[in-house]
Amino acid sequence: MNEYNFAYLDEQTKRMIRRAILKGLAVPGYQVPFASREMPMPYGWGTGGVQVSAATLTPDDTFKVIDQGADDTTNAVSIRKFFENTAGVETTEETEKATVIQTRHRIPEVKLREDQIIVYQVPIPEPLRFLEPRETETRKMHSLEEYGLMHVKLYEDISQHGAISTAYAYPVKVSGRYVMDPSPIPKFDNPKLEMDAIQLFGAGREQRIYAVPPHTQVVSLDFEDYPFEATKADHPCDLCGAEDSYLDEVIMDDAGNRMFVCSDTDYCRSRRAAGHLGRLAEEDAA
Amino acid sequence: MTPLLSVQDIQKTYGARIGCTDVSFDLYPGEVMGIVGESGSGKSTLLNCLAGHLEPDGGRVIFDTRTDGPVDTLTMSEPERRMLGRTDWAFVHQHARDGLRMSVSAGGNIGERLMAVGDRHYGAIRDKAIDWLGRVEISETRVDDRPTAFSGGMQQRLQIARNLVTGPRLVFMDEPTGGLDVSVQARLLDLLRGLVREMGLSAIIVTHDLAVVRLLADRLMVMKDGCVVEAGLTDQVLDDPQHAYTQLLVSSVLQV
């Protein structure tokens, strides 16, 4: 292959990260500090996720990378290539075939299985950060379960916008204990956080790893009179006709034409392959 | 009658310097205690020790809790103490900015304590916030404004509303009228006096303004160099000061 150790990181580092992952799985939602390494990519490109993936991958794994739902954008292509080069693992764009999925901003539409691991890239792991800037204080709030402040944010949303306007990185309570930032996934994906697969979250710059084990209760915070709602654009996908998937809005020209397409490119592709067609599907083929 | 708060031999030193020493007193339900003294006399140190913001070096602060009766707050666990700080206790800072969240609307500021003790109904929280804005004489239309848009006096009133919304039994106030002009001070004092009487609050007020204690406090402690030099009924201490320092303090007040 080449002169890199398997999956780039040295074995001691992977051990250290695995220990953090195991601790995170043992205490769902708790942010475990770890000694994040310099990676050959800038912060914000998924250095946390890459380290968790590197510590998780085995030579038999099949690896998939998602960036905003897509498999073919810069970030996804770069990270996929990175592990092709340094680990020599098989890569795929198909969710069903992957055993380790690294993702940024989305959870695949297809239900994940027990033999899969999904790794999230996390920019700011601390859900209370923008409300309470002091790390000493937020740690204390977590340890004492003082989460009233989280609701102050939701209160402000409703008082200013008439509804909970937080649309992504929507705070959740894991297993009835820790309030957790699910990374900047749309709140449409929040209900999927209770899944069969193992979920690992890595924040490289902030040096935190946390995890949600399979079949763990994950509750989105809300008010009794303003319950949580998983929202999406009220539209079917223009390519595959799916009505249950999260959509991206694409502006087509300067005359106000626009189309809605699945943000999960693999889901959209497999649906079209199975014969489902949306409003603009033929034009796209032509 | 059990005292609401029983303070015994509180002592706090900063290295060799004395913050406050050998302070003991009992505070009964519905009573307002004033603490006066010059700058650096240990008033704020004492108040912070009582409210759990500073850890005293010695002594006991026994609070009569609703559920368990008298408990030493210095030896209780931190979650319990912080819970007390959100429910039965309130702390009004001298600078409203220290006690408010400046980036959160007035309604959110008042609602924070309610949400911290588990209130999860937006409509109910908002109604309570509006009710409390009215009680501290702030117009309902300002409920969604941030405190940065408020005047100093309004900020201070908002801070009071935010603290009293959970119906505390003991309020600590650190120079609540400091930095306000006299007419605003007078209104604030009026308001405070009304709220204290109406809700049957007990309060400990630290101030260097004798007029404030004359108006609000039932009893008075005079501090100098970390020690209590004189204590008694407010009128008695102010009208017939015994200790040399108290005499100086009383005679230093400017007469208009």
From TrEMBL, chain A:
The keyword Transport does not apply. It holds the Pfam family PhnJ. GO terms for molecular function: 4 iron, 4 sulfur cluster binding; alpha-D-ribose 1-methylphosphonate 5-phosphate C-P-lyase activity; metal ion binding. InterPro entries: PhnJ. Its EC number is 4.7.1.1. The keyword DNA repair does not apply. Keywords: 4Fe-4S, Iron, Iron-sulfur, Lyase, Metal-binding, S-adenosyl-L-methionine. It catalyses: alpha-D-ribose 1-methylphosphonate 5-phosphate + AH2 + S-adenosyl-L-methionine = alpha-D-ribose 1,2-cyclic phosphate 5-phosphate + methane + 5'-deoxyadenosine + L-methionine + A + H(+). Belongs to the PhnJ family. This is Alpha-D-ribose 1-methylphosphonate 5-phosphate C-P lyase. The gene is phnJ.
TrEMBL record, chain B:
GO terms for molecular function: ATP binding; ATP hydrolysis activity. SUPFAM superfamilies: P-loop containing nucleoside triphosphate hydrolases (SSF52540). InterPro entries: AAA+_ATPase (IPR003593), ABC_transporter-like_ATP-bd (IPR003439), ABC_transporter-like_CS (IPR017871), P-loop_NTPase (IPR027417), PhnK (IPR012700). GO terms for biological process: organic phosphonate catabolic process. The keyword Transport does not apply. Keywords: ATP-binding, Nucleotide-binding. It holds the Pfam family ABC_tran. It comes from the Bacteria. Residues 5-250 form the ABC transporter domain. NCBIfam families: CP_lyasePhnK. This is Putative phosphonates utilization ATP-binding protein PhnK. It comes from Ruegeria meonggei. The gene is phnK.
